Amino acid sequence: MKNQLLKSGLGIHRQIQLRSLLALVLIVGISPLAMFGCSDNAPKTYAVKNWDEVQTNIDNAKSSDSLDLSGLTTPATKYTLSIPANINLKIIGNPNEIFIGVAIVCDGTNVITIENLHLISTNNQAASTIYFNGWGNQLILVGQNSVINAQALRMPGCGAAIGVQDGATITISGDGSLTAQGGSSGAGIGGGADRSAGTITIREGTIISTGGNLGMSTGGAGLGGGENGAGGTVTISGGTVSLVGGGSAAGLGGGSGGSGGNVSISGGKINTEGGNMAAGIGGGSGGSGGVVNISGGDVVARAGNQASGLGRGVGGESSTLNITNGTLTAYGTPGAERADAIGGRVDTLPARYVWWAADQFIDPASVPGIAYPEDEFIDNGGLYFVRIEAR
Description:
single chain, mainly beta, 2 domains, 32-stranded mixed sheet, 3 helices, 10% helix, globular
């Protein structure tokens, strides 16, 4: 009997405590879900039913929410979507559908995850198919993604598929893939026409990026500047990256008429190919090679017609190469203007390395360590070939 009374008293006491706690919740406005560890601010997924709802859902989204477009098909009209600054958003596409006439503008400091998203923007839309403003942006790749700028008109600042122009920064990561194609005179990733690239970092992912062109004489870099734009600051530490210049732009570096900028590679597998009279890595036609630092990774730089594999475009000034680790394979091309594999100075070499030219081993002790004479690069059946491999 005594134990039953004790248990009854404890039960009444707990009820009083719970009622007092709930009363406090109502007075101070604390969410009951939050009191028990269930936040009403948990990430949400907006399953969009039609295109007219998309912008409204973006405006209502909080950081880390998801926008599920997998139930949509290509819209009948064009949509340019705006993502407010400081919002982290995941956009889930339809893996079986290409959304034509859709562009996205990110206002700054955005972390955007794209999953199986396929976009094509057209004339008279945003400057880029996906455009990033300001600092601190991230693009995270999940699944297979493609971003294409189909703009056929040349307009200053326009034409890149992934727009990251001078003054903006972005870091690309994730274990997914991205295929980017620039339009008119824009880069695949970087600047639009008459614009240099900003600061672009690639940490991982599989990326294929091709610059747009308006013919053989003009175009944007695979990654870097648009027509007349410089390559900006590019850092690659991982991933599998293939870059092809459009028109007369570099694969990685300057657009046609643009210089190479500053490139640092510390890891990954990177293949580049320049457009007509442009370097694989460095300057577009008429552009200087810039500065290239390689401290790791497997890098292949293949020139366009008459240009250097790594260095200047035709008519441009030399580049500076520092390589301390990793492997570099460079191919130049012959022509009216000498086109060496490396069109510029080699200021730093690994402590131990081997060097091949024209598929023949050359004793590293016989190689000058500051600047190679141009005639050291041997004509190899129409290609000037050199390979430097750290040991």
